[in-house]
Amino acid sequence: ALLSGVSIDRRAAYATKIREAYFTFPPLAPNAYFLSQLGIGPEFRGRGLGHYVIDSFLNQGRAEGFRQFQLNVLADNKPAVQLYASAGFVVEREFLAGAGQFQYFCMVSKC
């Protein structure tokens, strides 16, 4: 989703920056079930698939005994932030990654 508005010739450079930024993320809470990556292709959006994936993630974590859930999301990815908020996630902290190039939210849910 982040790269969907970027021209093909610039996507590789952006993807490299995102990959480098990943290593600057804050540590995971020791008892948290972590969602690493979620993306819904543009042709599949608006069908409730994001809600389905988040619900499945939470249900699987609960089935394994987890009660705390965590994820990181680009702060300017408004649709994703809204999706996670609608599932009960709240912004716990903000941080910069990729030498300060990207602002992220660390979002958590305790169920």
Kindly describe this structure.
The protein is an alpha+beta fold and 111 residues long. It is built from three helices and four strands; from the N terminus they run αβαβαββ. It has a four-stranded mixed sheet. A hairpin with a 4-residue loop joins strand 3 and strand 4 (102-110). The longest helix is centred in the N-terminal third of the chain and has 15 residues, at 8-22.
Q: Span from first to last CA?
A: 28 Å
Averaged pLDDT, please?
A: 86
Radius of gyration: 15 Å
Strand content: 25-35%
The secondary-structure class comes to alpha+beta
Secondary structure: helix percent = 25-40%
Low-pLDDT segments: none
The main β sheet shows up as: 4 strands, mixed
Count of alpha/pi helices: 3
The coarse silhouette is globular
Q: Strands of the largest sheet, in order across it?
A: 1-2-4-3
Total strands: the figure is 4
SSE topology string? HEHEHEE
